[in-house]
Structures are given as C-alpha cells and as structure tokens.
Amino acid sequence: MSDTALAVVQPQSFELSVNEVKNQVEKIKTLMTDLMREGEHYGGSFPGDTKKSLHKPGADKLCFMFRLRPDFEQEIKELPGGHIEVLSKCKIYHIESGTKIAEGVGMASTMESKYRWRNAAKKCPECGKETIIKGKAEYGGGWLCYGKKGGCGAKFADGDQAIEGQVVGKVENADIADVYNTVLKISKKRAYVDATITATAASDVFSQDADELKGDKEKEEPTPEDLAKEAAGNGKKENPPQQKAPPPNHTVEDNRALVESTGKILKSLDPDGLPYFTDAEIAQERAVSDGSRTWQNFKNQNERLANILEKRKAAYGPVPFGDDEPPMWKENTTDGKPLLESVAEQVVKEAETVIF
Question: I want to staple 348 with a disulfide (CB 3.0 to 4.6 A). Which of 82, 84, 134, 263 is the partner?
Fold first, then answer.
C-alpha cells in the first residue's frame, strides 16, 4: 500500500492487517502534528470529549492525503414563517478506484438560535441606526443619537414613544432569508466532516465539528446604553483629552499601517467562515477611528480589538453532533445579516479618508 493511499479493501481481500490499520492511524496523527494548526484545521472539543473537533479545512487535508472526493446531495424543507431546514448527504469516494468509502449526514436550519434571533437595540427614527443612548440628567436627560458611534445627533425627549415604544432585546430575525446561504453551507459542512471522519477511521482522533458553543453564563455584549454609562461613569468626562500631534518618530505611514491592521482584525472569520465582529461593532469602531487623530489612539484601538479577537477565537468550540438541542447563541450581526468582508474594507477606506 502506498504512503498516500487510503486502506481500501479490494474485492479479493476482506480485511486489513493490523499493521495496515496502525499505519493509517499514524498517518492521520502525523498529518495533524506536522501540517494542521489548531484553531484552523481543528479545535477544542465540546465538554466531556477529550478529542479535537475536526473543521472543514482539516477535512480537506485528510481527503487530499487519502485521495478522496466528496459528492453531495441536499434536500430543502420549507418551514412556517419563511424558515428552512436543509439536510445534506455526503458520499466519499476513492479517486483512483472509484469505490464509495463512506457516507455522512448534516442538518442545519434557520430555526437554530443563532439564525432565528437577533438582539435589537433602540433605533434612531431619523437615521435608522442603533446608536440611541440615554442623555445625562445634567444636560436635560432625554435620548440622543450618539454621533461618535455613527449616529446623526438627533435628540428626543423623555417619554417619546418613537424611542421608548421600541421593542429591544431578543427578537425574531425579520430578514431570515439573508441567512439561507449560510444555513446551506453549514449543513453541507456538517455532512462533509461527518463523512470524512468515517471514511478515514479518524473518530479516535477527531470528533464531529459543529458550530460554536457559547456558555450559558457568557457575558452579553454591551449595548449602546451600557457603553454610554461606562464612558460617563464616576463623574469622569465623556471625552478625555487627546494628544494634539503625533508623537515623534511616528509618521503617516505608521498610522496607515495601524488602520490597515485594525481592518484585518475586524474582517476576521471563524473556521466556519462567519464573522467574529458584528455590523454594530464595525460601525462603532469606524466612529472611533474617525475620532482618532494620533498614533497612540490608533494603537490603543488596534490592541483592544486584537485582545477581543483572541478571546473570541479561544471561545470558539463545537457542539455535539446529533439530536442535541441547539445552543443558545448570540447572532453574528445586530441586523441579522451576515457580515461581508467588503464592509470591513470600506471601514478602513473611510477611516483613512477622514484621517489622511
């Protein structure tokens, strides 16, 4: 048997030797240690499982090494309220012999928590952005569409039902069709990983990769109101003084490099191809960049976002594959729409326009 061939039982043979089985397991472990990277090709397991979870890039590596190709079938079931359920079936074939090696299944639905719900914040009736904060009592109270978070600056009185009558918190995703494509791909990925583990007999090394598992006690992301309270807390001034000029030895190119680095952080995607940062966060960071004028401010923003990204990467983990209840999940975007890479790129361009 060659070093790159899967142990396929030929018609004249009905079993593999112990050495052949041992060699195949060793190949998988060697591939994992030499060519795979944790967080990209595989990740941590769900609670109670000591094995690593296989991600799609890792499944691609296994299939390439053993000369396997996947073949997919998908069935889409329409559900009430515009929701869909997608069942994917993946068959794995040996490229050289054409032998079918294994099958896998995966299901995804827009009824899963991460797609069905979104966290709604108060929207400005004037500009439509979720940038409403509570005005401070010493300035007359009321409500303000906060300009430094991308708002238009409009003010509203206390008791104004255009603001206080809005439903906030966990609400149904009104744009559920925007996640159809994501659900199709997630279902396909689940079936592919399931079939790959079976085909390569890698279940003693890898477990099924599903979507991110967020703990029940995970801290909620701050709302615009929380951010405003934090900025104005303890009697501190909301707008701390900034340096009037860049420190010595920091050029325009240094500022531009930090802006570009921040843009790359904001458009980072997890192993499932989904964004780590929400649309609301992108808009908020754009406002921060617009208000920055010094190298130190750009550096502080870049380091803060890098730390947030590392924490979210560390929190990424799979859920058990099967009939388990879907995990509670805070969706990736405030408006229910998947984040496109071009959004983050546009943020960088706009920030550069203002700065330079």
Answer: 263
In the chain, the amino acid numbered 352 is E
Amino acid at 119: N
At 70-82, the pLDDT tens digits run: 999 999 999 998 9
155 strand-pairing partners: 144
User: Half-sphere exposure of 242 toward its Cβ, with a 13 Å CA cutoff?
Assistant: 15
Structure tokens at 23: 């060699």
Task: Let me know: does 355 contact 137? Beta carbons within 8 Å.
Answer: no
The pTM of this model reads 0.51
pLDDT digits (tens, 9 = 90+) for 262-287: 888 888 887 777 788 887 788 777 77
CB neighbour class for 293 (10 Å; exposed up to 12, middle 13-18, buried from 19): middle
Q: Using DSSP bridges, classify how beta strands 42-43 and 169-172 pair: parallel, antiparallel or unpaired.
A: unpaired
b/e map 144-179, b = 16+ CB within 10 Å: bbbebbbbeeeebeeeeeebeeeeeeeeebeebebb
Phi, psi of 131 (to 5 degrees): -125, 25
